[in-house]
Design brief:
Strand order of the largest sheet: 1-5-6-7-4
Shape: globular
CATH topology: Thiol Ester Dehydrase, Chain A
Radius of gyration: 16 Å
Number of strands: 9
CATH architecture: Roll
Distance between the termini: 20 Å
Helix content: 10-25%
Largest sheet: 5 strands, antiparallel
Number of domains: 1
């Protein structure tokens, strides 16, 4: 069972602001990219259009605290940890590390909470249980990793 996933990427020039640091909004994109890669590593997608009804995982809460800047071409590691798993809800902790710094330094920490929803034919979203085959492959991370 999985409770963590790590993704590395280079900061692109287009992700920086006038001060030359990563614009805060990009941290939320990084979180989403790591979540999608986590699901793919389990053999799934966050959009399950092949099911009837189709399922998805929209965000219901996000936050991010910033500790140090990231700059163009820095190598950043996004460390996803499952902080909470309920029947219909997954909550992730994200730790961002600048691997270019020596020693590597934590630059931000974020939280994202998603709810499994069924997409009705009328566009209505209804919360539903996470499919068993997915839920059985995910577990909460040990407390010491969440500290």
């Amino acid at each position: 069972m999985a409770y963590e996933f790590k993704l590395q990427r280079r900061v692109e020039f287009s992700e920086t602001d006038a001060a030359g640091i990563v614009h805060f909004s990009n941290f939320f994109r990084y979180m989403e990219s790591a979540e999608h890669a986590f699901f793919r590593s389990l053999g799934y997608s966050v959009m399950m259009r092949h099911l009837d009804p189709p399922l998805g995982f929209p965000r219901v809460h996000v936050e991010c605290d910033f500790k140090a800047p990231l700059r163009f071409e820095d190598l950043v590691e996004i460390h996803l940890l499952v902080r909470e798993k309920k029947a219909k809800v997954l909550s992730y902790l994200f730790k961002f590390h600048n691997l270019t710094a020596r020693p590597p330094v934590e630059v931000a920490r974020g939280i994202c909470t998603v709810v499994c929803v069924a997409h009705g034919p009328d566009g209505q979203l209804t919360s539903t249980r996470i499919p068993r085959e997915i839920a059985d492959r995910i577990q909460e991370a040990p407390a010491e990793l969440l500290a």
